[in-house]
Design a protein that fits this description.
The strands form three sheets. Strands 1-6-7-5 form a four-stranded antiparallel beta sheet. A four-stranded antiparallel beta sheet has the order 2-3-4-8. Strands 9-10 form a two-stranded antiparallel ribbon. The protein is elongated. It is an alpha+beta fold. The structure holds a DNA duplex.
Length: 270
DNA sequence: CGCTGACCCTGACGGC
DNA sequence: TGCCGTCAGGGTCAGC
């Protein structure tokens, strides 16, 4: 479910319910995720007051004085705020019980997500090598141009590499390349500075629009209250293989790049 | 160092 | 109805 807009939508949804609340109890039903849930999560988080809910890349950081709970939703994870007596369903792996009679519930059918405890100001190896946030000023066409020289990997694979830039997943990579008229298979190192300028701008626009629409609901992504996101209606290429291009009406091409479905228009994207 | 493909896991869906 | 193959929004890691 989550790319950056969905994670950001989740952050904005849960933050007001968490900030200022005290954690009363932590219940881990299934510790076996992408990596094991930190052993000391319950011991360290219990009794702490939540000061903030931040995001870095697709990681959510629930901040307390003692340290942070770091959550990744993987492919199928979601977070909901519910009444504390709501019975858990299948794949509801973790509950964080709060001082106001509610709980934060982590669900992840495929268990590609992860939940760690981070001691205050400790950092984490998974955060160490990340590229810039796409919506930061430091992310620009010039930056992409500099990073891409001599790189032979397809430009789509390049912009989905979190060491280059974070938060550009498969949906929005396809959409941003369509919006900027760049063919996804093109070698990253062969793209001009000017075209990278368009691409960087397209990434910002696509992500910002998707956040404004509350994310993209495809299968099971919903907000913390269960409502869907509406960006799906705005997708121009993702999920539209073999359908007509919205711009030129020619049939869209579908290929696989780096194990991920890639859709583009051979006429509009060069 | 850069790049490709295997892999972690469950569920939904289409074809037969 | 059931079985089987394929695919899914992520990311790491081994191996070349």
């Amino acid at each position: 479910m989550p790319e950056l807009p969905e994670v950001e939508t989740t952050r904005r949804g849960i933050a007001p319910h968490l900030i200022g609340r005290k954690v009363q109890q932590v219940l881990v039903r299934q510790p076996s995720l992408r990596w094991p849930v930190s052993d000391n999560l319950g011991q360290r988080l219990t009794g702490q007051t939540i000061d903030a809910v931040d995001r870095r890349a697709k990681y959510l950081l629930v901040r307390t004085r003692a340290g942070d709970m770091m959550i990744h939703l993987g492919m199928s994870g979601s977070l909901r705020v519910l009444a504390a007596d709501t019975p858990p369903a299948k794949h509801d792996h973790i509950d964080i019980l709060l001082s106001d009679g509610r709980l934060l519930r982590y669900r992840d059918p495929r268990r590609f997500g992860s939940v760690f405890w981070l001691e205050a100001s400790a950092g984490h190896p998974l955060l160490a090598e990340l590229g810039p946030e796409p919506l930061d000023e430091s992310f620009s066409g010039d930056y992409l141009f500099r990073q891409s020289r001599d790189r032979k990997t397809p430009v789509k694979t390049f912009i989905m590499n979190s060491q280059v830039v974070v938060g550009v997943g498969n949906i929005y990579a396809n959409e941003a390349l369509f919006a900027s008229g760049i063919r996804p298979t093109r070698m990253a190192g062969s793209i001009s500075r000017a075209r990278f300028g368009k691409l960087a701008e397209a990434i910002k626009v696509v992500l910002t629009s998707a956040i404004a629409a509350g994310g993209t609901t495809l299968r099971d992504f919903t907000h913390e209250d269960g409502s869907p996101g509406y960006f799906r209606n705005d997708l121009k290429v993702y999920g539209r293989g073999a359908l007509p291009c919205v711009a030129c009406r020619r049939v869209l091409t579908e290929v696989r790049l780096g194990q991920r479905t890639t859709v583009y228009c051979r006429h509009c994207q060069r």
